[in-house]
Design brief:
Number of domains: 3
Strand content: 15-25%
Structural class: alpha/beta
CATH architecture of the largest domain: 3-Layer(aba) Sandwich
Shape: globular
Largest sheet: 6 strands, parallel
CATH superfamily of the largest domain: Nitrogenase molybdenum iron protein domain
CATH topology of the largest domain: Rossmann fold
Number of strands: 14
């Protein structure tokens, strides 16, 4: 990893850049796929699955028997682990439910807000180099709690044209019945437009590589909402002399092994810690089955030493990490001053892996600095807030003149008339 000591603030923007491909290059491919899928539906889906994934498919959707039989191929220990994680994630997301909010803003004017589920949602589950069945828990559980009427799942097939049994089992456990063996840009396009097999949805959720991220952003131009721009995974660790270098190295590698375009960063006020973590990284990296992937991500990553906590927190907020671990003596300071982060992990015994799998928080988070303006997935991500109001006769008599003055000042006479007619009607009856 590249070591950087006391970088001047004017260099931070370049220093903190992510290793992402130029948007224009990816967008050109995404637009081509979108246009083909909109025009040719399932045929285009099959063509691009053959081109990008090297897989020939007769059908896109899993049959009921395929879904039911998948559980038999999942080891009992893994099924129990998935069930435990499911219970914790359900607890955390159920706690996010809120009821109706009612306010009488002035006499006779009652306003209230209620939440309603999004009717149709699509879940994208990465499959690529690792079957991320945990992401199903993070998306399907809040979708179920919210009460979404239709939930569609797409995930890229393996070389044999099938999905990993754990993906199918977890989806079924979470109540998903429509599962499609489709990945990448073509999956996002399919859920955007709808095809002969894949239903059109109103909002698309789920992380992915740069192609998926750009495809999701492109989907918004066709009237489909997305959870957030969620691209290659990233982690920043803030650590000092109280941190265990072996723990820090293990956390950095846990994100580095996601993909070659992942990025991990250490920010510390202790230069000796950089050397200790670097040595631990080298030792642990040699033991990883995904060493080649992690190594490339490590090559994109940095160890940064800054002079004090104030500088550290400003740099961290500018980066806006997706995952953010705090292992510092002045823990409270870092927590109080964190403004931009997707999810925060506190202390030596809180690995980021806990949030990825089973602690209960959601792991679908904003990357590439989007934590500065986006939240991670929550229960509210699957719901819409609808405002209501009811005004009594007495209420419009009191509030009406205010509306008339404002409407007239804006030159919107019809707006004023809508109030004036009611006021005249009420006053004539008095």
């Amino acid at each position: 990893m590249k070591k950087v000591y006391n970088p001047p603030m004017e260099s931070w923007e370049n220093l903190l850049q992510r290793p992402v491909q130029a948007f224009s290059e990816v967008e050109a491919v995404a637009r081509e796929v979108f246009e083909a899928v909109r025009r040719d539906g399932d045929t285009a889906i099959g063509n691009y699955t053959r081109k990008f994934d090297g897989v020939e498919q007769e059908t896109l959707e899993l049959s009921e028997s395929e879904i039911l039989n998948a559980g038999k191929e999942v080891p009992i220990a893994l099924r129990k682990a998935i069930q435990t994680a499911k219970e914790n994630i359900e607890k955390f997301h159920r706690a996010q439910r809120t009821g109706r909010i009612t306010v009488e803003t002035s006499p006779g004017v009652q306003c209230w807000q209620e939440k309603r589920p999004i009717d149709k949602v699509g879940l994208y589950i990465p499959g690529g180099t690792a079957p991320l069945f945990s992401t199903i828990l993070m998306l399907a559980i809040p979708a179920s709690i919210a009460g979404c009427r239709e939930v569609v799942l797409c995930s890229p097939p393996g070389k044999e044209g099938q999905l990993h049994p754990a993906i199918i089992y977890t989806a079924h456990l979470c109540g998903i019945r429509r599962i499609f063996k489709v990945g990448g840009i073509q999956a996002i396009a399919g859920m955007t437009f709808g095809t002969q097999s894949i239903p059109r949805v109103f909002k698309i959720f789920g992380p992915g590589n740069q192609y998926v991220t750009v495809a999701k952003q492109l989907a918004t131009t066709f009237g489909v909402a997305i959870d957030m721009p969620a691209g290659p995974s990233e982690l920043l660790v803030a650590a000092d002399h109280t941190a265990d270098p072996e723990f820090v190295a293990s956390d950095l590698l846990s994100q580095a092994e996601h993909g070659t375009d992942s990025q991990v960063v250490l920010v510390t006020t202790r230069p000796e810690l950089m050397d200790q973590v670097e040595a631990a990284l080298e030792r642990q990296l040699d033991l990883l089955p995904r060493k080649a992937i992690a190594q490339k991500a490590i090559d994109n990553s940095k160890l940064i030493c800054v002079p004090d906590d104030d500088t550290a927190i400003e740099l961290i907020n500018q980066y806006g990490p997706e995952h953010y671990i705090i292992c510092c003596e002045n823990e409270a300071y870092y927590l109080e001053n964190t403004r931009n982060a997707g999810s925060v992990f506190v202390g030596n015994y809180t690995p980021e892996s806990a949030g990825d799998y089973a602690s209960g928080t959601n792991h679908t988070l904003p990357t590439n600095g989007y934590a500065r303006q986006y939240s991670g997935v929550t229960l509210d991500s699957f719901m819409k807030s609808i405002s209501f109001q009811k005004i009594t006769a007495q209420g419009i008599l009191q509030l009406g003149p205010t509306i008339e003055v404002m409407a007239e000042a804006e030159g919107l006479q019809a707006h004023k008339n809508a109030v004036s007619l009611r006021l005249e009607h009420l006053r004539s009856g008095l």
